[in-house]
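Journal club prep — side note

Before the paper discussion, L.F. wants everyone to see what a predicted structure for a comparable chain looks like in token form. Sequence:
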Amino acid sequence: MANAKEQKQRLTNELADLRARVRNQTQLVRRQLDLRQYFANSLRQHSVGWMSFAAIAGWLLSRLPARKKKVYVQAKTNEALPKASGRNGLLLAVGKGAWSVAKPLLTAYLTQKLADRARSGFRRKKRG
């Protein structure tokens, strides 16, 4: 009987030691796998690298083409929408054609004017 009590006590102590070791190991693993703390420490220690990475990633994302989403509008009835015809239709077509020619010319002209103004702004003019 004494032998059985000693064996039971020994098993209980071994089980308690094993539980303590498992608890310590799980806490260690939890600390090592804490990604929030890992990134906070990394950001604190390597802030220049993280800022450089963020700037490069932002620049790359800004170079992606814009997503073009098509929107389809349907009339409530099945009838086709009336198109501009006659004089209005002709004026609309001429206006669209003129704008398609004038838009690049206007853009080039305004770009050149802004570039000239920017260049002249950097030179200091002497008053006298």
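L.F.'s comment for the group: Residues 88-128 form one domain. Keep this in mind when we get to the figures.
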